[in-house]
Design brief:
Number of helices: 3
Number of strands: 0
Shape: flat
Low-confidence stretches: none
Order of helices and strands: HHH
Radius of gyration: 14 Å
Oligomer: single chain
Strand content: under 5%
């Protein structure tokens, strides 16, 4: 969705489509054990993955090492349960 359609809806607003609220909530569940920081951590995780996808899709990252990039970006977001 984020790469195929231009969205003009604000983030986390009443005007945001329910599907987008749902998608964010699914990501937030990954970090539910982080208390009040879960929202910020979710936003940073989403932004990091979004950046990797954007840079890869626009060929501004080399085609090599895609799995390594994702593996490394996930590490700071891995917390003990």
């Amino acid at each position: 969705m984020m790469f195929l359609h231009s969205l003009s809806v604000p983030f986390a607003d009443a005007a945001t489509p329910p599907e987008l609220h749902f998608a964010f909530a699914q990501r937030r569940e990954l970090f539910q054990g982080q208390g009040s920081k879960s929202e910020v951590i979710t936003e940073l995780f989403w932004a990091s993955l979004n950046g990797i996808a954007e840079l890869t899709g626009t060929k501004r990252f080399p085609r090599s090492r895609p799995k390594e990039r994702v593996s490394e970006i996930v590490k700071p977001f891995t917390f003990p349960r």
